């Protein structure tokens, strides 16, 4: 972890003499009075901005970065111009331009002195504090990475974890950033992360427990200068030494050094490459071996919920249950979800729309009549050999987190003559085995822990018990008559798009049309409602016989 801004002679002595919180308060006061430019890591933990003002801090920071930038290096010129803009009344877009210029420079011509200052993330911090929500996700991801850093002590880990939770809650729309990143504003923002009425304390427990388990797994020893000091009473229960992380904890992610985005390595090897078939498979996957594939940052949960309820007003409880899984995560990840509801209630369409809004690659796999394990791939020795469906999706889309929608899963055959779909799914759905699931086509392990599994069923009678145990089962309701107005307009828009028309031509039902549809449809199947709406559209297009 860098301390590139610790340039004043007395700083190391002061840090050693003061506890973490006292030290931060001292730095915050100095920054607020304009006597000290704080480091990014101190800002995240509650230190005030320089003069408690974004533009003032950005101007001071940009001037310092410009001193370390080699202006004679042509690849550095875009960043030089971008940082210069930050020294005089910058706008939010200027911070994003500087962040992008820094990322481009580090990719093409890395400069260690600038990397130590974490220019990109700091510019995203400025953008986030001036209203750019996408940058809130960037800062949250950086805070999460700091919280899991092995080279810090427990007290620092708690501080970074608290900051990570606050920024994650802000990214999810569950808390708001302060109007000013002042001493009071920053402290209040971080305090809100552990509001007793919110999810923050449980998130802190999960993060610290996962951190402890990761450190033990990797053999790291924490550099804790206060090892014998007892943690504060509120934190102590969140720091178990021997417990395993919860099974539904966040899948492992890393920050891609080139892009700064969250990513995960999916493919590490191809087995048995001495054969012609093995060479062929190696050619397919060679470019992806040990390559971090992107993960999608957690979106604005409030906006996502609003978009889903606009189209599925009858599914509020399902929306809230699914979106709750995003709380406390740095990237999109869900437990496997099985939506159970009557035919025509919209559950498959809901699953597809959720994937679209999350901006994840998606494929619908119809389970009706499937009587083999083809979804799990076919060995390369057969002419029809091919990878498992999730493996192929991750290869084709170069993404670590595709969405697989298992439609009508209760209709899958259970005969084991050629393998069965339910049996093939069990290891993919179990997190521990999904991390190293062996693909028969690659003849090597594949990391599937970030695959999002959504399934639908009309009832649970045909779903085997082991499969039910691995899914989170949510009841998807039929829409009621009270939802007619919202649903009818959505179906009118869909009908216009299918007919190749501009959706703006889909005028709402008039009073007579609405009454006619309402007299027939009093809730139930959306397919039935769609037929009625299409009937209205057809009647509108029919030439009038009256003169």
Automatic annotation (TrEMBL):
GO terms for molecular function: ATP binding; ATP hydrolysis activity; ATP-dependent peptidase activity; serine-type endopeptidase activity. Residues 333-480 form the AAA+ ATPase domain. One of its GO terms (biological process) is protein quality control for misfolded or incompletely synthesized proteins. Pfam families: AAA. This is AAA+ ATPase domain-containing protein. It comes from Muricoccus pecuniae.
